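debug: dumping io for the single-chain case to check the tokenizer round-trip. Nothing else runs in this session.
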Amino acid sequence: MRKLLVIILLLTPIVMKAQVGEYRTDFAIGVNGGYILSNVGFTPDVPQSMLGGMTAGVTFRYTCEKYFKSICAIVAEVNIAQVGWKEKIQGLTNQPLYYEGDATALHYERKMTYLQIPLLARLGWGRERKGLQGFFQIGPQFGIFLGESTNTNLVEGYAPTEPRSSNIVAQESMPVEKKFDYGIAGGAGIEFSVPKVGHFMLEGRYYYGLGNIYGNTKSDYFGKSNFGQIVIKATYLFDIVKTKNDKIK
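debug: decoded output
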């Protein structure tokens, strides 16, 4: 029994070491840029289409381990992003509305600028240093409101050619109330690595806001006003620190 206990104690570190993946200490930094399609989930509902905007910023990546075939990393970004919503202003017949004698369809869009900070856990499969890798990443995202602008031809006191299909219009005159946004971001993409040059990535990502831009108490107009965002972005990273291991491919 004692011999068996000694053998178990001697084998335990070996087993534990075998269960832990291959450590990495790779750190890379770079830039990213892309296009965002966004809207705001209002309750009561506001008819909308997706609003397009730009996003750009810096990316940091720390690769910490290869566990079996999965390359584990932590990714952080600091981005400036243009998001918001674009209303569908339609009549009772679901056709665009006009003012009498004006051929321009009525429109309203609100564009907001945010400082966005996603913190993502990443799993990759494929080549690390040279060649192609697929990846998936997910994690929390935080946003800080910086400013807003409105693009509209609606004129107070003027009536369109027929009544609007939706009478929810309070949002058109309400400034953003909550300056801090938070939610969950997740996406997938491909990465192509070139030795001594860097890493080139193309990714599709979705963000679901858990916060609201307006108050949502019983006394507030909207019960919900959270973001939904689709992001297509490209990223370039170059290595600052690389793990010294000739077996890494």
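debug: round-trip ok. The two ends are 45 Å apart (CA to CA).
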